[in-house]
Amino acid sequence: LLAFSLPQALNGFVLVVTSEGLIFYCSHTIQDYLGFHQTDVMHQSVFQLIHPEDQQEFRQNLHWALSPPHAPEGEPCSQGKRGLGSSAVTYKPDQLPPENSAFLERSFVCRFRCLLDNSSGFLAFNLHGRLKFLYGQNKRSKDGSPLPPQLALFAISTPLQPPSILEIRTKNIIFRTKHKLDFTPLACDAKGKIVLGYTEAELRMCGTGYQFIHAADMLYCAENHVRMMKTGESGLTVFRLLTKDNRWKWVQANARLVYKNGKPEYIIATQRPLVDEEGGEHLRKRSVHLPFTFATGEGLLYQTTHTLQGFPDSFQSKEKKSKSKKTCHSNGGHSQKDNIDPNSLLGAITRQDEAMY
Questions:
Q1: What is the SS3 assignment for 270?
Q2: What 3-state class would DSSP assign to 265?
Q3: Cα separation of 128 and 125, whole Å?
Q4: Which of 51, 191, 218, 330 is the most buried (most CB within 10 A)?
C-alpha cells in the first residue's frame, strides 16, 4: 500500500535508468504527467522520451564523472535492448566513489515527450536523485564472466512549472485509453473504468472502438482519426461515448500516435467528460457540410443504399421500403446487412442496439 500511495503523493514520478539508458523502472504516475502507461516505457530507451537537445546532458548525468564516451546520435535507442551499448562503461565497484559520495548526486533539467501537452509536445522536468548500484541484473561480459552491479540513476522527476489549481482539479477527472491504429480499444485507466463502467476485457470484446460512439458522431470522429494518422494528432474532438448502462456520455478527447522505432505503434486518447449542455453546444457548432443527416440517431452514410437494421428509416418513403423488402425476399432472405464489413462505420452502427438511442 505504501509503495502505491507514495508516488501518488509526489508531484511527479519516480524514474530508474540504467547506465546504458534503459528505463529499469518508472512509477505509474508517469501517466499523469506524460500520458504514457507505465508498461509502455519500462525496459525501453529513455532517449526515445527525451528532447534531442537534452539527450547529451542526460547521457552525461548517467556517468559518475559526467564524461561518458562519445556515442553516435541515436545509438542508445537502437542498441538499448541488446545490452550494454558503447555509451555505457563497465566499472568494478572499487573503481567508483562510495555510494554516499556527493559526486553521485544529480540535479538537472530535462524535457520529456508529453502526450498531454497541446503546444510543443514536450514538458520540462527537474530530475533530482543520485547514482546507485543496481543489483540483481546477472549480466555477463563478452567472455561470459559475471559483471558486478553497475550504477543507475534513481531520480524523482517533478514538473519545472508547477501545475495550476485548475490543472490539479481537471486532472482528477481526465481519463486515458489505449487503442490499436484502427482505434480498437486495448486498455483503459482506472478513472475511465469509473466513467464508462466497462472493464478492459469488455472494451476489447466489442471490435473497433466505433461501436461505443454515437451514430451522429461517427463520421466526425472518423475524419479526425484520418487526420491523426496523417499528422500524428487528432486535435480536440467532442463526441458521445456509450456507457455500460446504455447512456451517452459527452467527452472532449485528443488522440495522439505513439511511435516506436520510427513507426506508429498505437494510439493514446486523453478524454475529459463534459456535461450534456456543453456537449450540445459543441454539436451545434460542428460543421454541417458532412454528407449525412441525423435526427434521432439513424444516419445515411455517404449516400449508401444499405438500410440500417433496427432503426426507423426516415430517409425513404414507404414505396422505397416495400421495394427493399421485395429485394430482400428475392435474394433468398439474405439482407444487405450480411454483406457489410463489420469493421466499417456502417458495420459499427448495425451492431449497435436500437435501445441505445
A1: strand
A2: strand
A3: 10
A4: 218
How confident is the model at residue 304, as a pLDDT? 42
Residue 174: Cβ within 10 Å count: 20
The pLDDT score that the predictor gives to residue 332 is 46
Give the model confidence (pLDDT) of 291-307 as tens digits.
444 443 434 444 344 44
Task: Name the fold adopted by 11-65+103-140+147-162.
Answer: Beta-Lactamase (3.30.450)
Q: What is the CATH number of domain 168-289?
A: 3.30.450.20
State pTM to two decimals: 0.60
C-alpha cell at 323: 421495394
Residues 44-74: tens digit of each pLDDT: 999 999 999 999 999 999 988 887 766 544 4
Cell numbers given for 14:
519516480
Q: Which three cell numbers stand for residue 342?
A: 463489420
Q: Starting at the earlier edge strand, list the strands of the sheet with 237-242.
A: 185-188, 175-179, 263-273, 248-260, 237-242
Q: Is 353 exposed, middle or buried (0-12, 13-18, 19+ CB in 10 A)?
A: exposed
Distances (CA, A) of 305 to 289, 311, 320: 20, 14, 11
DSSP code per residue over 110-126: EEEE-SS-SSSSEEEEE
Nearest in space to 290 (alpha carbons), one of 241, 220, 209: 220
Q: Matching CATH topology for 11-65+103-140+147-162 and 168-289?
A: yes
From the list 231, 217, 239, 238, the residue with the least C-alpha distance to 267 is: 231
Domain definitions of the chain by residue range: 11-65+103-140+147-162, 168-289
